Amino acid sequence: MLALAVPVVLLSPMFAELIGYQLPGGPWLRWVPPVLGTVLFVVGGRPFLTGAVSELRARRPGMMLLISLAITVAFLASWSADLGLLLGVVGDRKLEFWWELALLIVIMLLGHWLEMRSLAQTTSALDSLAALLPDRAERVEGDEVVEVAPTDLRVGDLVVVRPGGSIPADGRVVSGAAELDESMITGESRTVRRESGDQVVAGTVATDSGLRVEVTATGDDTTLAGIGRLVAEAQSSSSRAQRIADTAAGWLFWFALGSALITALVWILVGAPEEALVRTITVLVIACPHALGLAIPLVVSIATERAARAGVLVKDRLALETMRTVDSIMFDKTGTLTKGEPELGDVATADDHDADEVLSLAAAAEADSEHPLARAIVAAAADRGLTVPPASGFSSAPAVGVTAEVAGRRIRVGGPRLLAEAGQPELDVVDAWRADGAIILHVLADGRVIGALKLADAIRPESATAVAELRGRGLRVVMITGDAEAVAHAVASELGIDRVFAGVRPEDKAGIVSGLRGEGRRVAMVGDGVNDAPALAAADVGIAIGAGTDVAIGSAGVILAGSDPRTVVSVIELSRASYRKMRQNLWWAAGYNLISVPLAAGVLAPIGFVLPMSVGALLMSLSTIIVALNAQLLRRLDLRPHS
Question: Is 368 annotated in the active site?
Fold first, then answer.
């Protein structure tokens, strides 16, 4: 479109007269603007014309109708002038608007493109939910195990889930026991023990042992599908909000139409029908300022670019606009305020053993294990610079612990079942650890307890600063988690959060968000798990931690590329600054109309001043430049989190 617009503008007699240059000779050149201008009107103007029809059918005039009114009047008036249809009425080529038509379409298409890019919706959330399911399932048929597609499973089928495999459908464990990784559903890092009779959810992973599962739900009846429906419904409902620019355009449409009618009537009454036609057409053409088409999209484009440089991806413009009005920030605990993976917090010792000895022996025994707790123990020993002796004869017993030969001793690391099996008591200190919600493992050497390890989901070092900054801005900070009360309140107490929802099931998180909104609060939800997806979509603003699942990211309007919760403060600052620029630009664009339209109509004609058409068109372009420069001031905003 730009390639067509340039020759239309440069070969326009009115534009040449306005700028002050001579057009080249040749009778064919005078037809370049009409021909190319017609192509611009038909092709470039089509999105606006079809949008105008939709607005008329809905009886809700907005930006599309305002743009269509201007380009249609400019198109018809210009052709009438070129064909001499108005020659005896208003004089030769006095109503030639081809250059204005070209500029208007190109600039509005630019604004439309910027808006569509900033409002692009994603279907990746639902795609990622489907990707959690395995490609194939192993169904037991008599004495054989047959591979089938998960979609072929029926309620009552018996399926085999091997170690490391995903569960293909909701079901009930009929044999076997395993530690299940349910983090992709619950968002919680700790594995969950599932045994015969327990319910399991499609998409979760058996980390250490195999299971046989009787299918109880398939397809749309599964928990995963239910979460998908919640995400889709919430995203659909949140997209119906009205845009500020459309509201302004609706008012300006009626203002332009009313001004044109009044202009025509007044000039006819004073006995100047020729001037009535010229003034009326001029009003209708310049009533649609270029600035209004760029006022919002240009600010959003710059704001999202600045946000991206600060590690914030704005997927939904409405989310960015709404963030300034939020008064409550709800954080999911695991993976958001905490790191989402266990870390060693403390080491207790028995008798004359020291902490480094206990930890190095435990790390040696756990070295060959892939369990998250084992990795945490090994990492802690490495961080302390301990020498970890080699181990041999490694074995692992689900729900009990690991065993290995280390330096001639039989080292075992595990939980309560290991102690019961060995007939050993807990160390006294673990009662206090348990009150904090920690994971507790004991270390045994040759059948005797030599120490205990405290492991917990470590709090991010930036979380306390983030909570303090948010509270300092008058926002209420809320924490929600599927963890037990003890764990949740221990984290909340350390961070200074006074409202906590603990033990929340995945399907209930969106309900809690709705409850807060029912209290009259504007809620931003910050999360990273699949179970957070419905809550992210149902909140006024959904913010996904970039290290989280694709589903959470797909359901949010704002994505933090990193895992620093202080970036939430940056999002609020960006929202407030962007809104100020949007409001300033809208007032400027609308203010141009309020001043230029009456002048173009001839309101000052009694004192000898009538705004020329060319000057009005030039002022319209000038208003676009001012709006663009004002939006550029957003680039000065520093969104980097401050310690």
Answer: no
